[in-house]
Every structure is written in C-alpha cells, then in structure tokens.
Amino acid sequence: MSLDSDEIFQQITQKAAHIAGNTWNDMRQAATVEFEGLARRIVMLIEGYRKDEFTKSMAQGHLANMRYHVIATIAMLTMMTQGAVEKIVNGALTVVRDAINSAAGFALIA
Amino acid sequence: MMCFVRIASAFVLLIVSGCTSTLIGVPYDQKIDDELNAYHKSSVQFIKSMEQAAGTPEGRFGNKNAQKFYAESAANLANIQVRADVLSDKECFNKPVQTVIEKGDFAAIDEKLQQKQRALGGLDSQFKITTSPSGNCLALMVRGVRLAQQRLESDHKSMDKLTPSVATLNQESISASVTVALKGLRAKKS
User: Fold this and answer.
1) pTM of the model
2) Which stretches does DSSP call E strand in B37-149?
3) Chain B residues in contact with A66 (beta carbon < 8 A)
C-alpha cells in the first residue's frame, strides 16, 4: 500500500488545528475568569478595609497573595499549552497510525 | 518558518522512534486532583461555620475545631506540595523569566511586607512559604493554594473571628487558587 504524503499532512494539520482551536478557547476563557475574579477580590478587599474589617497588614497580605495568583495563573496557562502540545503530537500520530502501519506492514507506531 | 521546521522535525523523530505518547513537564496526577478537591470542600465548610459562629467562642481562632482544621490543612497541603514538587524537575519558568519576577516590584513588595510585619511584632505564618516563582508549574500553583490557606489562618488569628467580608474574600481566594491548580493539572489528563 502506498502512502500519500499530502493526505497525511492534511490529516495531521486538521487534527492539530482542531485541538489548538479548542485549547485556545479554553485558555482564553480560563484567563478571563481568573482576572475577572482577581478584579472582584481587589474591590472586595478595599471595601472591607474601608469598613475596618481588614487591618492594613491583612490587606497587604492579601495583595501579596493576589500578585502571586497572577503568577499561578500564568503557570496554569503554561500547563494548558503543554497539554495542548502533547495532545497535538499524540493525536496527530494517532490519526495517521493505521495508514502508516498498514503501509509499513508492521506496527511502526504503537 | 523555523518553528514549522522544528515541529515537523519533531513529528518525524516521533514517527521514526515509534513513540506515541509525548509528555511535556508535569504529568496528570489523580491523587493531587482528589486531595485538592477534598481540601476545597473542607475549607468551604470550615469558613462558613466560622462565619456563622463569628463573635461566639466557637468562632474564635483558638477554638479546638479551628486549630484542628488549620493543623490538618497545613499537613495535607504540605503533602500535596511534596508530591507536586517531585512530579517533574522541569522549571515552569526559565531562569530569565524567574529573574524578572524576582527582581521586579513583586519581590520589592514582598520585602516591604516583611519589614512591616517585623515592625508589627514578627512575621506571620504566611512567610513560612516561599513566594519564589521556581519549581514546576503544578508546584507553583499548589504553593498558591498554601498561601491562600495561610492567609485565612493569619486573618482569623489577627481578628479572632471571620467577619462576612473576611470570610468571603478568603473563600474566593482559596477557590481561585484551587481552580487554577485543577485546571492546569487537568489539562494534562489524556
């Protein structure tokens, strides 16, 4: 059985584009939710401080944690990107596995 | 163009090697997923009960139930941290990025906060946990959960009660930190 490189290329790119598109939407949504939440908590903190429910020291501690949360959010987006790359590489190989194995005559891709 | 060539080369290498499972950085870990869920549930219950009991002996920081929750949570989260730390030795951010974060105003604010804490009579428990951006991505996010937990403990200790605003802000901070960790972790679930 002969292999069509154009067909393999099309299958791989379609699969990759599909995974990347879904992941990008997930990342955009996740980042938006986190930063909206962060903005809401900053307002909550200032209002609480004005009502004397938070001391200055408590407010500063929360602010420090909020800053760290931005770093944690970037770490989350990094992991989502890594997960997408893993799925693209693994998915791209899976989608052409049967055709390649059939052409090779043995299980080249397990 | 170079990027495309690199990706194409990676595909070729993978096909030639017969490898069908690629992993970058931290793998998915079911135990951490479960433990973070369990911690989140217990924190929601605890904060709600302390808010309702605010102003009564049951709502005080020194209360037996409160002390039990803080001790158990600290131990559980420390265990999760260790597990996350050893899952991968791949740094989430490369050294130049870490340097930018450490040398930026983030580090300056940290130092200023510590100075203020010393002036107030000592560092609170929050500063037992490093705010360094080093480590793998999951370890970094779990550190965020621990910081949120220690902030709750510190607030409770300062005011000896959890008023509605303090309770809500801490609950939202803990939920956000757990959510971020779980979303990152579950992105690696195949």
Assistant:
1) 0.81
2) none
3) 173
